[in-house]
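forwarding from the other thread:

> can someone predict this with thymidine-5'-diphosphate?

sure thing
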Amino acid sequence: MKKFLDLGFQPLANSYLNSRNLHIKEKKFKLIVGFNKENYLVSILNTVPKEMMFNKNYPYKSSESLTMRNAFKKLSNKIKKTFKPKSILEIGSNDGAFIKNFNKNKVIGVEPCNNLANITKRKGYKTYSEYWNINLAKKITTNKKIDLIYSANTLSHIKNFSEIFRAIEISLSKNGILILEDPSLLECIKKVAYDQFYCEHIYVFSTIALQKILSKFGLEIFDIENIDTHGGSNRYYIKKNVNTKFKIKKKVNKNVLQEKKFGLHKFITYKKFAKRVLSSKKKLYTIFKNLKLRKKKIIGYGATAKSCTVLNYCKIDKDKIDFIYDTTSFKINKYLPGSKIKIKKYKKLNRNEADYVFLGAWNFKEEIFNKEKQFIKNGGKFITHIPFPKII
Ligand code: TYD
């Protein structure tokens, strides 16, 4: 693993502070990103024990976003129509935004964060509040294999993916399908979205890396969809290579060629990316500094894990951003880790409160701009760092 990017010392992105622990020294870790030229994997080098991140306090709820709810609904309809699975299992079922689209007798959730697993359990969905591994796979699927396994934005969080894939391989029926969805490395590099890297995002996958890994487990990608979620993701349709029911679509090779054309198999591409990240940091800091010199009021929109990386890396704190609006009940009245900016319960943007709004949730830009038409009409502006720092 060769290091190419140093994002400095970072706190745990989802460890929101409250007023009691605001002045306690936070645990920080060095966020370094590297490239493995053997299997093309891009990953963070220092990882944090999973129990420190995925526990009963995990704040992220998929159902709170309209964009995500709609995306899960659309995918569920497609799955029912195209694959007609008799059994479905989701790894990382969160608060049930995906599984709730299926019949309770057909679907199983696996979710290690108790607070989230309890939500789906209470609604009558079979949910295992455990980490996905070989033991759990055997427990669930000894008598009956699964026709469709889905996992979105979860695999990138799991360090030991060998165990994960082995557990998937033993659970999946012969003609079963695995659908994985994660941020796309190509989009991340193109958009200089270095905030895809934080303690929980150990990996940002490319098609070429995933293909290499999957081949070790007798699995292969037969279709890919490039989707908008999380700032540009790939949805990979995967089968056992003994399964001849599904032909490998041209789209797979198209993605591979695009990634190779962009140089995702070469270290030099990542060195260039690191230079663009450094320049992005300087530009974003200058935008904030200049606006503050002009006494402009700046607030934030979306207390995301991504903004935790950006604000800490760029050294933008509560002197520059008065507060951040967020809709997630768990985050309200807490403080963003590291930068210690207060998070307030979302209210429609108002020109009396802000001249400029930093788009922490840039991946929901369309949804946000639609909601805040009046603010924009009244001359309110947004600051984004994607694909380069600018005022919109
Ligand atoms: P998310 O996209 O999951 O980012 P990350 O994975 O980096 O944490 O989180 C989106 C956050 O933005 C979430 O806390 C909810 C918030 N949000 C709002 O407050 N208002 C909105 O209109 C939208 C779309 C999101």
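The first helix runs from residue 50 to 53. thats all i got for now
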